[in-house]
Amino acid sequence: MEDKTVVAAKFFDNATSSPALDTFAYGLIVLLLLLLATLFIAGRGKDTRIYDAKLAWVRAWIYFSVCWLLSWVTGVLPTLLNAEIMNLDHLSQLGWQLYMITAWVIVLFGYLYIWPKGTVTYGRKLYPLSTLFIGVVWGLSEAQLFLSFWAVGEQFIDQRWLIALFTYLLASMSNGPLHLLYWDRYVSPDHNIYEWNMKKVGLAHSPNLLISLVYLVVWGDLWIYMMWPTFALIACAYAQKFPAPWDRLAHGELEAQLGLCKVNTLSLAPEKRTKML
Fold this sequence. Notes:
Elements: H1 19-42, H2 53-73, H3 76-82, H4 94-117, H5 128-154, H6 160-187, H7 197-218, H8 222-239, H9 253-257, H10 270-273
């Protein structure tokens, strides 16, 4: 008799690429190498403490390229390209309807209220189109990165909820160091208000990740899953006013101390401020 407590969760087990997708992936490898070379040449001798929008975009696309390549290698990208947007039968399910309403209330609260309230922009100019563009690519890239973790979990875990737990733990453990050591240091402009960091994690990032993973466990629509992280990072890009690559203004905590901009807030703990120069 089949054990109904074990739910098959092999989204990516039978993933097969195509010549066109392979060509795209090889192009990404070339792009990644060119970006790394550009960063090495253009970044030599520059003070990395001072924000450089052009190099920030180069570093962002290095991260995006790695995410998409991991997605291709783990079978996520080919599976997504062949997956239906959603199972239309879900639309008539009361549980699905209630979940979607509840999920969006939580996500909208986290990213349209909590995140902007805990964010400072130092008077940066908003570039709507370039901000939307990088927000969409950022969201799609990170969503695929987390699905790549799920695909790894499928290799040795059978139960769907355990794969979700594995993905959550791996995403949580990797996302902190990624932002601390790379994204928030070299890609995103200075934007965090120190006192709000834990609120952002607890009321925005963690609930969003949980909502998307629980959806995968129960309903399994990959593209609906992609919707939440993509929306979240579009909202983050707008809230922090992510600079366009041609933006020459340097607005942030260190820049304020150096006199490059006049705006200043408690984005860092007071004891850390004196150590920046």
